[in-house]
Amino acid sequence: MTDCLFCRMVTGEIPADVVHETDRTLAFRDINPQASTHVLVVPKAHHPTVVALAQADPDLLGAVVRAAGEVAVQEGLATEDGVEPGYRMVANTGPAAGQTVHHVHLHVLGGRDLGWPPG
Q1: Active-site annotation holder among 38, 103, 105, 107
Q2: Has this prediction a pTM greater than 0.90?
Q3: For residues 19-29, b (16+ Cβ closer than 10 Å) or e, as one string?
């Protein structure tokens, strides 16, 4: 999709601060971070939402989640077992939830206490 911001980042047309990449995923720092660490993890293939991705390619959804976990470890938000000290993985779906780019992406947030409920 030529008008999709994240597709253009995947192709290198738009620069990104890439922190992790696999053959199927790309992870880069958010330009408007909401925590000390705020990384977006996207599939390289365009899918508008998590549900659309799960329906079209469940293996790719698994790859995105695995990449998010690897980013958390790499960024010091989790140990190899994926737990301590902790992080949040968020997928916004639709405008009412704050999704502004309609290419599925997971936010990996951490480096500060993340209260509950969010918002």
Answers
A1: 105
A2: yes
A3: bbeeebbbbbe
